[in-house]
Amino acid sequence: MKNQGPSVTNHGRHIAGRVALLAGCAAVLGWIGMPDMALAQDAAAAQAPTAYRDIPYIGSRNLVWIIAQLHLLLAGFVLGVPIFAWLCEIVGWKSGDKRYDKVAKEFTKLLTSSYATTALFGGILLFLLIGFYPKLMAYLTDIFFPSFLVYCCLFLVETATLYLYWYGWDAMAEGNGKKFHIFLGFLLNVFAFFIMIVPNSWATFQSSPVVISEGSDFARAWAATWNPTWWPVNIHRLIANVVLGGYICGAYAGIRYLSARSQEERYHYDWMGYVGNFIGVFGLLPLPFAGYWLMREIYQYNQQMGITLMGGFLSWLFILQAMLIGVLFLGSNYYFWLGITHRIPGSEGQYRKPIMAMLIILLLCLGVWMTPHSLVASLEEAQKMGGTHHPLLGVFGVMSAKMTVSNLMVLVTFMSFIMYWRAGKEDTAGWARAAKALMGGVLGLAAIAVIVLGVWGYFVPAIIRINYFSTSQVGIVIFVMLTITPLTALLLKSAKTTTEMVWGKMPPRAGYALVLNAVMVILLMTLMGYARSSSRVHWHVYGVMRDSSPYAFSPALGYAAALMALNTFLFCMLVAFIFWVATMGDKAKAAASSKGSVEPGTIPAMAGGSPALDGPEAPVTEIDAPERKRPV
Amino acid sequence: MSEVVKLQLIGLCVVGLGTVILPFIKGQFIRVLGFVAIVLGLFSLVALAVPQMASLPPAEESINIADIKTPTDMATIGQKIFFSKGQCALCHSIGPSESARCPDLKGIGAKLSREFIFESLTEPQAYLYLDYRHEGIPKEYPARMPYINKNPIGLSKNEILSVIAFLQQMSGEPISVSPAELDLPRATPAPVKAADAGTLAVAQAR
Questions:
Q1: Which of these, B79, B76, B103, B81, lies nearest to B91 by C-alpha position?
Q2: Which of A 194-253 lie inside 8 A of B, CB atoms?
Q3: If DSSP codes are grouped into helix, strand and coil, which group holds residue A540?
Q4: Is the per-residue pLDDT at A396 higher than 90?
Q5: Does B158 map to a domain?
Q6: Which residues of B touch A142 (CB under 8 A)?
Q7: Distance CA A47, CA A241 (A)
Q8: A–B: how many Cβ contacts below 8 A?
Q9: Is 50 exceeded by the pLDDT of residue A1?
């Protein structure tokens, strides 16, 4: 294995070198492309301007749709993974549990190749946009050129920080070096955040443009950047990226768990799946609130746009969204429940009833959420019903009902997590009884308050419901989380472990549940991307620059969903390829180790472990120790 | 065969074939891939089962000066410009609105003369509000209004006069602009580079 080490390292460096070259080329091409846009504008002024170009068979819009979607999904992945990895690294550093550090490193390793792929698709997208939409790009360049430069600078510092973060992992593994490394991780995420919000400003300006007065280039760009939906989208995407990172980690762990050959692998990937699902759920809980804020801002900005989304031709899209979110909530809860019943021996009987109750509540809530406002009915049926609204089910088709059930689903999922957290532990604190009564009271009252506000919402004007009732419901759920989480943490600090958690015992369906969750998140991102884009209807820049191309129409949901499914599949294949490339060296390493002096199965088949750390002197005993530590 | 039926057939094939073949596949990665394909196929089939509504763009209208016979015609065109190219409704409302970022324009045609409105649109900094609530030189409040006759909005004189006609009409005032004042049509100026724009006014978007 020692002899194999340098060759693996060289192999890794070789791949990283190619990746860096690709990323560099993409950045240079992007850089070169930007002055081209200004030149195209000059040329356009001199000659008859070309507003659009097309491509045969596939069509310009479809091609841009696919490339933009893949670029955005990859971007979400490369921005979500550093957050995920950094959080894991901090947990590992604080708790001393080396598994977290290893999983953080394993995912950071993916970033180099992921960045290159993202940049590659970004470069392709840029060229396609310049080629297919020269007039629009000239317009946007005129406004945003200074922020293009800022974007390029951010890429440079982000890339430099990523190289330091990845290549310095082993060199900065202990003491102050580790602290500096964590600081680098922080910087990486700060730069990544800014890389996200700069292009967000371009896209949100298209949806919610503001009037730009005269001024310096920077003043104009800043005015356009600070548009009404910029920050809601920034926050929504930030949280969504955490969710994506977490669930993709979960899916990766799920696949590796399904194909694991040794108990060590099963143990490791079961644990990794748990971490991925936990971080995914952690992000998922506040996500509906961020989405609500975004929709509220859209309504505030332009009521017509809000109506197009929620009540117009896109209204059925939100039924699909409800279905996907519902499956995601069910999948995440199901994974928690499988964890309770399989990882904690003897707990199946104890938790069967609460699990069943939660499942019923979730299904009922999902049923309400998926109830359409108006039904597809024949003329005869409509006459019998007295319209397209069902006399009974129609009550569930309105926002008041949907806001209520979405809050209840968040509450149930939160309680699922708390139940998992507390499983196998016995409270020893003297105040445990009072604390549990308080938590039960808070939860019960909160659920009642959410339902009461939901029912009351039917009898007040929409503006009161939107501004006060819905926000109060959100506030109540956040209050529950902020109250119960610290109380549970305090209780568990002094709790006694009655049943030790056993890893690697999950059934195969747990792996599929993790994959399903990831697919749901990706589909949701593609669906809401279509919603955001289609809410502009026939405008490139809403109300300012009209789309006069043959593709000015927004396609129907079925056609769009087929493209979304294709994009999701392509993205999954890309991510699988990235994982395969990144773990190629580790497979060779694992094969060599099985032939070498180290006993088979003592080193988990993990990516990202350097030869130095994976050698006999590496802290593998931490993983293989008989006493498995419970996750924090 | 319609597009929807074709897509439904593809979806059914993916789901059906996947379900039949998957139990016989042993490779875990291929199995997972098949599972993903089935999930995506099901999603597409559900999406194809809901009402299929596309959003078609309205026909583009071009303004022909020769067709403008009366001040009311001008007001009709002005209304369209107010809510589209002029971007007035991005900030202003007609009637009270919580979301409006700038003054309510209801009745503005009755309060202000057409000359003042024209100047407000083309020289928004001509009159500055002054704050005397402190000692010394009064503080100036530059208008947040952009130059409507310059880029990126760039309304022509004809278009501005039409907007004024609309503002007067919706205020219940007699329209004081007449079609005779309209210039012959000219092309909308091309967008200028940001560097060519003026330097004094600071953009205030919100």
A1: B103
A2: 209-217, 219-224, 226-228
A3: strand
A4: no
A5: yes
A6: 152, 191-194
A7: 43
A8: 191
A9: no
Domain, as residue range, for B24: 3-49
Model pLDDT for residues A407-420, shown as the tens digit of each residue:
999 999 999 989 98
Say if residue A266's pLDDT is above 60: yes
Q: How far apart are the first and last CA of chain A?
A: 33
CATH number, residue B97: 1.10.760.10
Angstrom distance (rounded) from CA A426 to CA A173:
36
pLDDT at position A381, please? 65
Q: Do the domain assignments include residue B92?
A: yes
Look at B55 and A538 and tell me if their CB atoms are within 8 Å.
yes
* Distance separating alpha carbons of residues A593 and A620, to the nearest angstrom: 14
Question: Which one has a higher pLDDT value, B58 or A139?
Answer: A139
How high is the pLDDT of residue B43?
96
Q: Is position B93 within any domain?
A: yes
Residue B89 has pLDDT above 90, yes or no: no
Contact state of B153 with A214 under an 8 Å Cβ cutoff: no
CA pair distance B57, B53, nearest whole angstrom: 13
Burial class (CB in 10 A: 0-12, 13-18, 19+), A26: buried
Domain identity same for B91 and B166: yes
Sign of CA dihedral A38, A43, A46, A51: negative
B61–chain A Cβ distance below 8 A for any pair: no
| Model confidence pLDDT, tens digit, residues A278-335 | 889 888 888 888 888 898 888 888 777 877 787 667 878 888 998 999 999 999 999 9
Better-predicted residue by pLDDT, A39 or B60: B60
Amino acid, single-letter form, for residue A578: I
Same domain, B40 and B90: no
Please state the domain extents for chain A: 1-227+564-623
Q: Is residue B199 part of a domain?
A: no
Mean pLDDT on A231-247: 93
Instruction: Answer whether 0.80 is exceeded by the pTM.
Output: no
In this structure, are B152 and B117 located in the same domain?
yes
- CA dihedral defined by A478, A479, A482, A484, rounded to 10 degrees? -110
Report the alpha-carbon distance of residue B52 to residue A558 in Å, rounded: 7
The total of structural domains in chain B comes to: 2
